[in-house]
Amino acid sequence: MGRPKAEGSRKRKAKDPNRPKRATSAYFFFLSKMREDSKKAGKPITKIAEFTKECSAKWAKMNEKDKEPFAKKALTDKNRYDAEMAIYKGKDPNDAGKPKRPQSAYFCFLADFRLKMKGKDIDHKEIIKMAGEAWRNLDDNEKKPFEKLAQKEQEKYEQALSDWRKGGGGASPSKKPKQEENGDEDEEDEEEEEDDDDEDDE
Question: Which UniProt keywords are present, listed alphabetically (predicted)?
Answer without folding.
Answer: DNA-binding, Nucleus
